Predict the structure.
Amino acid sequence: MSISSKNNLSMFNYTTLWFGAAISVAEILAGGLLAPLGFKMGLLAILLGHLVGTTLLVLGGVIGTTERIPALVSTRISFGVYGSYVFSVLNVLQLLGWTAVMIIVGARSVNEITKTLWSFDHLTVWSLIIGALIMFWVWLGKDSGWKKVNHIAVILLFLLTIVLSVIIFRNHELFSKLGTGDMSFGLGLELAVVMPLSWLPLISDYTRFAKTKRGGAGGSWLGYFFGSSWMYIIGLGAAIIASNPDPSAMLLAANLGIVALGIIVLATVTTTFLDANSAGVTLLNIFPKLNEKIVAIVMTAIGTGLAILVNIEQYESFLYLIGSVFAPLFAILLTDYFLLNNKKIQADLLVNWGTLALCALGTFLYYKFIDLDFFLGATIPVMLIISIIHLITWRVTVKWKYVRKF
């Protein structure tokens, strides 16, 4: 039975779903960016950033569970029907970017393993193989069979995290050695916040099928917070000790060989599936007659092509770009839904130019805070500022309408 016909996903389903999504080479590499902070300050930035980011992520998911609508459809509450189309297009672009990033970093790790073991050095071939496996995962769909396969995948990925953790934490230099480079605590905090934030345009695509609001929210929070934090910590430790957060090097050093290859491929497929699938769901917000599964497969094919043709190296800049768009967007939506009690989509609201302008202001402010190197990063202050401005302008607008009426 398809989950689209029955809301049957439990807290355990969401815990495994988001834990599996968090276990990826991309998250390990992101954690490696924090190495200049050292282990203690890097760990603090990771935990604080994920506490904030995952909580925001889950609040977005609560909207999907309560209203039974996908993530980008929920933006119609604040931005209108056509306004949501703007963010749908932006979200498809970021999902294509994520698909390409995930495929290329996974392919590079696998290629390092096969190059070392068998002198098989073919990055393009591995990109194509991983892309094809993601398409197969999408084709399986989100039925009960898929849930069982996903649970098995998560168990294997959990074993991977234990192996990587043992490799990292048995090195006593971890707690005293600093990584190379320069980074402030604020930028490290931002890099930890922005990863869960990047999933905000996707989470309701899945939590709308939760049995209960508590199950969807609790499972998503536990799975993603612990999975992503763990990946960041592994990447942080690897970058400090070996100046290389790529897990392939650690797994080869542990003589895992072919097992390492299979696990990295599995981690890449289970995470990138969510990006490709949500690209299909997002496009349905604009073109509701499209077939969700076919669109997701096409998105995977395009992402695979980008991974092969485009040299994706500016990973940190890509994360900041995502934060600059979606931090102000969801600051407005969450303020509307939870603080102003604006919970219904107005069919006659095509475009809310006021909130779109406010979102553009938020993007401008985001990069200003990045340039200022603010100690709280950029997402936290920007979301607070945009939320306060939205609260004030909404109250003033309501009062003005009331005065005009009488």
Residues 32 and 236 are 4 Å apart (CA to CA).
